[in-house]
């Protein structure tokens, strides 16, 4: 090994450890590694920036906008609700819902699909007395499986496609991955609706769990005439910085004040509603002029009114809130919303809300204004998994929705026919949507997930450093020295397993980009066609079923389904083994 190879390897190991330990956001960690390679001269500026002009990465950016335009008008959600309502049994409902869902995820980004359908499925389950946990994890799994069917089904397919084109190799055509994608989707369905269904837990969702234990979450105090701070602000009364408690709402006769600001004036007779560690309420009881309403039957649902609502949100991997306490992030003033409770691994965090340091996958129960969901639906800080009210101009929305869907189907047909490349087709789709005002420019900008694009572009640069220094070839040679005597099937299994382990521990796009240079070197060393190896890496990078952190859709359903980490291991491990077995077998038969 040369010095440059050793240096690149050390930086990549450090990057990998930082990703696993969640020291910072994944995009910032991978970008930092890229900056190190640029500053030390391992990569030239052109090489370091090559990922930012990668065709696959740019196609993903356009697909974010196209998916947002198609889903914005609620047409797919409306059709799926009607379709679901026709079912008679739980199993038939699952089949009726998940078949079209997996097909739609082959052509649309699966993250917004899961964000959109999670509250819809939750409500449908609750209305029928079914545990949402029986539906939500399969929702994530079938969208992952459906995304493997086409080139545009998931970002990893497009990233690998773009990297192959950059190396002047032939990329994937639209349905090339379907030779593996269709079989694993069908087998995944059979597993989920038989063995998997029995293994899925019967859990209450986060909000339902909180509402069932309302007395542990809220307390009511009444302001008497002898309270020293009557007609003074919340700040002066010392109710802003309480140990373990948070003043979430003031009920004043028929009026409700929420969220409560530091400048809000307290009046005699006000009912002060607190949430947090109710066991610390004794501190408040010692304050003169405040009396605890022991007979209060106030529940969390009662906090909702015309101006406020309860909202559930899942903290994302790319959130700017990570590694900060809720107080440090100034959550209340930044989002105009109060945090009622935080759950992690299906357990409420027993701490003062303001002191909780957030991690990816934490579920927040928020008391917000009525426009919160619409305003933060596209936020990179969290996935909002509460229902959005139907827009008032339904007729216009339906018309634009059909137009957007028709445009997408038409352009996909042209891609299939070879008239356009995927990049050109999506570029034309975005141009048409902006020209016809299906979406506005500011909406298109909001649909772009810059953190994902930065991660992918930076990871491509890191992959370039592995190739340029010869590290990818060296790793490939070491792997072949061990595995080659065992035969081609063993080599495919090792490539699949390494990619899949990286995906579960870091992210799918980073795993794909790190493994592709190694995979191509393995193909060169064996003197076989690279396409089979590229397909193995594409499928393995997407097939994340064993942890909630490996794939963003698994993270989205984590809290709403009330799952524990072990539920993913129990249900996802057999599915992961099945998918690996089918993928390796099909690739070996078709390409080797």
What topology does this entry show?
Layout: H1 3-21, H2 26-39, H3 45-48, H4 55-72, H5 75-85, H6 90-105, H7 110-127, H8 136-147, H9 155-166, H10 178-192, H11 195-199, H12 206-212, E1 218-223, E2 245-252, E3 255-257, E4 271-276, H13 282-285, E5 290-292, E6 308-315, H14 331-335, E7 337-344, E8 347-348, E9 363-369, H15 372-376, E10 382-384, H16 394-416, H17 422-435, H18 441-447, H19 450-469, H20 471-483, H21 488-505, H22 508-526, H23 530-542, H24 552-558, H25 565-591
Antiparallel strand pairs: 1-4, 1-5, 2-3, 2-4, 6-9, 6-10, 7-8, 7-9
Gist?
By secondary structure, the protein is of the alpha+beta class.
Main sheet specs:
5 strands, antiparallel
Give the distance, in angstroms, between the N- and C-terminal Cα atoms.
Answer: 31 Å
Strand order of the largest sheet: 3-2-4-1-5
Estimate nothing, just give the exact number of structural domains: 3
Radius of gyration: 26 Å
Structural class: alpha+beta
Number of strands: 10
Q: Give the % helix.
A: 55-70%
Approximate shape: globular
| Average pLDDT rating | 84
pLDDT below 50 for ≥5 consecutive residues: which ranges? none
The DSSP helix count reads: 25
Beta-strand percent range: 5-15%
């Amino acid at each position: 090994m040369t010095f440059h190879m050793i240096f690149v390897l050390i930086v990549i190991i450090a990057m990998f450890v930082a990703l696993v330990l969640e020291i910072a956001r994944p995009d910032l960690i991978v970008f930092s590694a890229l900056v190190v390679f640029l500053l030390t001269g391992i990569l030239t500026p052109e090489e370091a920036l090559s990922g930012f002009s990668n065709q696959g990465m740019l196609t993903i950016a356009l697909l974010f906008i196209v998916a947002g335009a198609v889903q914005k008008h609620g047409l797919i959600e409306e059709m799926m609700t009607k379709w679901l309502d026709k079912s008679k049994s739980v199993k038939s409902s699952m089949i009726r819902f998940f078949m079209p869902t997996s097909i739609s995820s082959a052509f649309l980004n699966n993250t917004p699909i899961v964000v959109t359908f999670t509250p819809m499925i939750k409500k449908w389950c609750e209305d029928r007395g079914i545990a949402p946990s029986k539906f939500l994890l399969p929702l994530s799994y079938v969208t992952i499986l459906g995304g493997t069917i086409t080139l545009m089904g998931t970002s990893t397919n497009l990233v690998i496609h773009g990297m192959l084109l950059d190396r002047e190799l032939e990329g994937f055509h639209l349905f090339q991955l379907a030779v593996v994608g269709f079989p694993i989707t069908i087998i995944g369905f059979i597993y989920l609706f038989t063995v998997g269904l029995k293994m899925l837990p019967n859990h209450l969702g986060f909000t339902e769990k909180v509402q069932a234990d309302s007395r542990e979450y809220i307390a009511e105090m009444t302001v008497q005439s002898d309270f020293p701070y009557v007609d003074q602000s919340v700040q002066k009364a010392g109710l802003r910085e309480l140990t373990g408690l948070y003043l979430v709402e003031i009920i004043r006769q028929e009026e409700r004040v929420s969220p409560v600001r530091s400048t809000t004036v307290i009046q005699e007779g006000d009912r002060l509603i607190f949430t947090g560690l109710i066991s610390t309420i004794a501190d408040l009881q010692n304050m003169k002029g405040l009396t605890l309403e022991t007979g209060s039957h106030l529940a969390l649902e009662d906090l909702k009114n015309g101006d406020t609502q309860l909202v559930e949100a899942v903290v994302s991997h790319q959130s700017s809130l990570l590694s900060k306490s809720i107080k440090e992030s100034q959550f209340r003033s930044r989002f105009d919303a109060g945090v009622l409770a935080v759950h992690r691994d299906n357990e409420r965090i027993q701490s003062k809300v303001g002191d909780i340091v957030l991690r990816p996958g934490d579920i927040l129960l928020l008391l917000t204004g009525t426009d919160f969901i619409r305003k933060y639906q596209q936020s990179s800080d969290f996935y909002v998994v509460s229902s959005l009210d139907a827009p008032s101009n339904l007729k216009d929305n339906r018309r634009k929705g059909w137009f957007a869907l028709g445009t997408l189907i038409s352009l996909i047909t042209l891609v299939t026919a070879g008239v356009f490349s995927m990049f050109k087709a999506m570029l034309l789709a975005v141009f048409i949507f902006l020209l016809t005002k299906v979406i506005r420019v500011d909406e298109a900008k909001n649909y772009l997930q810059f953190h994902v694009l930065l991660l992918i572009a930076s990871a491509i640069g890191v992959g370039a450093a592995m190739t340029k220094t010869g590290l990818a070839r060296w790793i490939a040679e070491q792997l072949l020295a061990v595995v080659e005597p065992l035969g081609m099937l063993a080599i495919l299994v090792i490539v699949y397993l390494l990619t899949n382990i990286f995906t579960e521990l870091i992210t799918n796009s980073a795993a794909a980009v790190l493994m592709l240079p190694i995979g191509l070197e393995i193909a060169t060393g064996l003197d076989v066609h690279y396409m089979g190896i590229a397909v193995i890496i594409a499928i393995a990078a997407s097939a994340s079923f064993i942890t909630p952190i490996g794939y963003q859709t698994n993270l989205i359903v984590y809290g709403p389904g009330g799952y524990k980490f072990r539920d993913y291991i129990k249900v996802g491990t057999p599915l992961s083994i099945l998918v690996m077995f089918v993928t390796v077998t099909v690739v070996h038969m078709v390409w080797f």
